[in-house]
Structures are given as C-alpha cells and as structure tokens.
Amino acid sequence: MNKTKILILCVCVLAAIFLSFMLLPAVSVTEGESEERLYVENGDVNALLDSINSKESIKCDFTLSMAIRLTSVFRTFKPGSYVLEDGMSTMRLVNKLVKGRQDPIKLTFNSVRTKEQLCSRLSQQLMLDSADIANMLRNDSILKAYGMDTLSVMSIFLPDTYEVYWNIKPNKLMDKFHSAYKAFWTADRKNKAEAAKITPFQATVLASIVDEESTYKPELPVIAGLYLNRLHIGMKLQADPTVKFATGDFSLRRITLEHINATRNNPYNTYTHIGLPPGMIRIPEKSTIDAVLNYEHHDYLFMCAKGNGEKGHNFTVTFGEHKQNATKYQQHLDKRNIH
Q: pLDDT tens across 158-173, in order?
C-alpha cells in the first residue's frame, strides 16, 4: 500500500513539475520584429516539430516536444498560420495549435501583368499551390458563377491589402476578391462608366493601359480622356504598352515598327486593331480606374513623353504638333542609346 501511495505521489509530483514547465514562456520574439509566425501545413507531428525547430524565437525544449507528442495521441493539430506572441507559454502554444486559432495574414499584390504572375504572387503568400489557383481561373463553370470569363476574371483582383487565412480554400479566396470587387463598383462608379460609354470591365482594361503609360498621377485623367476621345471617334488607340504586352517582353523601353509588325495579328496590338484589347495588360491600381471614370474632358488625340527629364507627356490636338514632339523624343532616346 505504501508503495502504491509513493508511486501515486511520484506521478503527481512529476505531473506538477511538468505542468509548471508547461506554464513557462516558450516563445521569445526578437525585439524590433513586428511579429513571428508559425506555419502548420498538416497535423504531422514530426513536420510540426521541424517547423518549430526552425524558429529561433521558439525554445523547443523537452517540455514543448513532449507536450506536442503527448497531445498528438488524443488531438490533432490544425493547419494554419499562427502568430507567436512574446512570452507565450508551452500550454498556450499547444492549445492554440490544437484549437486551430490561427491568425489571418495580410495578402497583397501589385505590378502584376499576367495571370501566371498573379497565381505565383498569391501562392507565395498562401498555402495554395499556384496551379490550383490557375486551374480555378481557367474553369468556365466556376467563372460563370461570378459572371466572369477567362479574360474578365482578372478585373476581380483589385490591388489592396486583404486579410485572409493562410490555408484558405480556392473558392473562399475567389469569394473574398469578388466581394471586394462588388464593393468597389458602386452605383456611382457604374454610372460614370456608362456616361463614358464603356462597361466596368472596359474601364478596367483602359485603366491597365493608362497605368502602363505613366507613373505621374496628375496626368492620368488626361491620358484617360485622350484614349476615350480616340475610342469615341473610332481611331486606333496606338498605345505602346499594348504592343509590349503582345511581345511578352516587359523589359522593352522603346517600341519600334519592328515590334508592331511582329505582333500585328495579336489582338492586343492596338496599332493594328481598332478599339480596346480583349483583356487587361496589367492589374491596374484602383486609383487609376477612378482616373478613367473621372477622366478629363478635352480635345487631345496625341501624346508624347517629354523625354527631357521632366515628368509626364506633351498633349496635342493635331498630328503635326505631335510629330514635332515625337521627333524631339526620339532624338532624346538616341542620345541615351535606348533601343
């Protein structure tokens, strides 16, 4: 009987000691760091311990290792992204992983030109594989449910900061972007697009061209107005960025007749095809879409980069004026040996 009591006492003492260690801090976030995260892809204990061991901020001692292994016998660890708080105890950490109390990540993207780039950018920040995202964006039945097709679907993705869970499912991710898209296209914005005689998708396509034309924000409504003037009179847009997109070489700094002729049958070449291209040539900023919707009313039909170190473009009504500006610009490029 005494032996039994002693055994029980020993077990209780050991349990108490183990519990006390469970309450000790297991996480120490480096001072100055905004946050530390632990990513759990599945419930595999060894994979989880490997992830923990890779974090300098986590003290993976015997207590934490044993707590995870013992817990895994009865419970499973939920996949997700978890913020590690400074001073977090072993018990709190294990409890958070078991209950799946993950923390959302801030999903961002910008300067995206192609669907492949978008899928890659998103997959780098999510548990999703880029191929899974690409398959979703190619699935006609899925896109139809959102009122989109394989070209227009890119307009759903508006550059912003989105709070999502790291292990979000493809359909939930699509829902998130589509909700933001619907919220952006208010009745006021739709009315402005209609007044400009374009659809919301066409406004986004035009914004993608305007976004590529200039980084000088004050002139974006002027550029938008110029292209709308051309559209309304049936004049070819003749936008260099569309030719660059058609070539697939985004490093080009100078569009020549050779590039135009090489892509003359490409529907994105607005030198050889009238109207807007069939899709976007990049994902434009929301502010640029607004610049299109709030375009400046004027009579300009031509523009040419100033090319003398000044920001922006020279805008003209006649081709004769434009030709003079274009000659000066070409001379500037020649001096800088830009081909």
A: 999 999 999 999 999 9
Runs of H (alpha helix) within the chain = 2-22, 45-53, 62-74, 90-99, 115-123, 130-138, 140-145, 170-184, 187-195, 200-213, 220-233, 240-247, 257-262, 286-293, 319-335
Q: Which residue(s) pair with 281 in the sheet?
A: none
HSE (CB half, 13 Å, CA atoms) of 261? 3
Find the length of the chain.
339
- Is the predicted pLDDT of residue 77 greater than 60, yes or no? yes
3-state SS string for 48-96: HHHHHHCCCCECCCHHHHHHHHHHHHHCCCCCEEEEECCCCEHHHHHHH
Query: How buried is residue 321: exposed, middle or buried, by Cβ count under 10 Å (0-12/13-18/19+)?
Result: middle
Handedness of CA 223, 225, 229, 231 (dihedral sign): positive
User: For residue range 273-287, what is the model confidence (pLDDT) as tens digits?
Assistant: 999 999 999 999 999
